[in-house]
Design goal:
216 residues; alpha+beta; five-stranded mixed beta sheet; 9% strand; Thiol-disulfide oxidoreductase DCC; DCC_oxidoreductase; protein-disulfide reductase activity
């Protein structure tokens, strides 16, 4: 009997440790297929993320979360050459294909913006990383949280979150303000010129339609 209790205690302890290592329950294939989560559930999600990311932002936006939104999506300026180069780098480093992308110019970006309570102008100024329902980040924090999901050694860059956010964002904003002058921009989303990347984009169908209409 004593041995059985000892084995049971060991199993429960192991299970608890394994559970703590798992990703939050929302980070499977979609956020929600019906109504938005309750306030309590949303609070739990934000609390869990804050343990990992002390600078995580919880959106006060309380509209219903659209179905089939995917977690870990980068919403970025698709016509910016610097932004496009950054996306290409992440795709190359992300061997586990955890991160997905969407051009802010696409209609497919709208539900993500609505969930976060942001406009396209907000994202053109500071790119957006949506990790899950009511959990998102922008600018330098978003970049470092993307790095967190990449394999080592790239994930080690997330340790730079220790640098005060105002200092990090001051550098980010300066580069972002001058990115078109320094690196240039295009008239349409640059991924249309590198279609092998489209499999990682949540707005793939919309971009493919643009390609077809352009060819016709």
């Amino acid at each position: 009997m004593a041995i059985s209790k000892m084995l049971l205690k060991t199993w429960v302890s192991s299970f608890s440790k394994a559970t703590r290592k798992r990703s939050p329950t929302w980070s499977s294939h979609f956020f929600s297929t019906s109504s938005s989560p309750t306030t309590a559930v949303a609070a739990d999600i934000v609390a869990d993320e804050d343990l990992l990311y002390p600078n995580a932002t919880a959106s006060p936006f309380t509209a219903e979360i659209p179905g089939l939104l995917q977690p870990r999506v980068v919403i970025y300026d698709g016509v910016c050459h610097l932004c496009h180069s950054g996306v290409k780098w992440v795709i190359k480093a992300d061997k586990d294909r955890k991160i997905k992308f969407c051009c802010v110019q696409s209609d497919a970006a709208e539900p993500y913006l609505n969930v976060c309570g942001l406009s396209r102008e907000d994202v053109l100024r500071r790119f957006l990383f949506v990790e899950g329902p009511y959990v998102y980040s922008q600018a330098s924090t978003a970049a470092l949280k993307v790095a967190y999901h990449l394999p080592f050694p790239y994930s080690a860059m997330s340790s730079l979150l220790i640098i005060p956010k105002p200092l990090r964002n001051a550098v980010y904003d300066y580069v972002a303000k001058n990115r078109y002058d320094w690196f240039g921009k295009d008239d349409e989303c640059l991924v249309l010129k590198e279609t092998e990347m489209l499999s990682r984009f949540v707005d793939k169908e919309e971009l493919v339609d643009k390609l077809r209409s352009r060819q016709n």
